[in-house]
């Protein structure tokens, strides 16, 4: 019976461990990059806090405003982060999505706080416009899409 050499066995186990437990910094970087790319698209169809990159004919904010300002804020926050979460679930590897779900509070907070920071830099009056309902929608959007993405990927 042939035994696997210990150095080869160690190398294989390390490789498997790295795939199952990706580095947090690399994971945050990937999610942040995906969020930045999807934010450009999201803000173009649903301007938030007075920030709009491109002028598309689609304006979801007007549709959301039909339900009133609190629901509009909730839906804008949800749409903004859910789009990023969905894109991350589609683009990233299955093990990376699983690792994100394991650290969803940390990664979700980083995405949301970086977004709020960006909005504050671009529009100093954000504190007058900022809504607790937007924050609730943003948290619900990012957490739910990470969870749903992980569950869908687990079936494949």
How is this structure best described in words?
Helix content is 78%, strand content 0%. The chain has helices at 6-20, 24-45, 60-65, 69-91, 94-102, 104-122, 126-129, 132-154. The radius of gyration is 19 Å and the shape is elongated. 29% of the residues are buried.
Number of separate domains: 1
Task: Give the averaged pLDDT, no decimals.
Answer: 87
Q: What is Rg?
A: 19 Å
| Overall morphology | elongated
Quantity of strands, as a count = 0
Helix content: over 70%
Number of helices: 8
Offer a quick outline of the entry.
By secondary structure, this protein is mainly α.
Would you spell out the secondary-structure blueprint of this structure?
Elements: H1 6-20, H2 24-45, H3 60-65, H4 69-91, H5 94-102, H6 104-122, H7 126-129, H8 132-154
Helix pairs in contact: 2-4, 4-8, 5-8, 6-8
Tags for this model:
156 residues, elongated, mainly alpha
């Amino acid at each position: 019976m042939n035994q696997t050499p210990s150095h080869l066995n160690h190398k294989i186990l390390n490789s498997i461990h790295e795939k199952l437990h990706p580095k947090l910094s690399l994971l945050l970087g990937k999610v942040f990059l995906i969020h930045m790319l999807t934010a450009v698209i999201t803000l173009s169809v649903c301007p938030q806090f007075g920030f709009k990159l491109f002028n598309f004919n689609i304006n979801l904010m007007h549709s959301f405003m039909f339900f009133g300002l609190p629901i509009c804020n909730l839906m804008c926050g949800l749409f903004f982060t859910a789009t990023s979460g969905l894109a991350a679930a589609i683009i990233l590897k299955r093990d990376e999505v699983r690792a994100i779900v394991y650290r969803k509070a940390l990664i979700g907070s980083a995405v949301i706080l970086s977004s709020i920071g960006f909005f504050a830099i671009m529009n100093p009056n954000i504190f007058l416009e900022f809504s607790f309902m937007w924050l609730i929608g943003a948290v619900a959007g990012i957490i739910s899409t990470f969870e749903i993405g992980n569950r869908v990927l687990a079936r494949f």
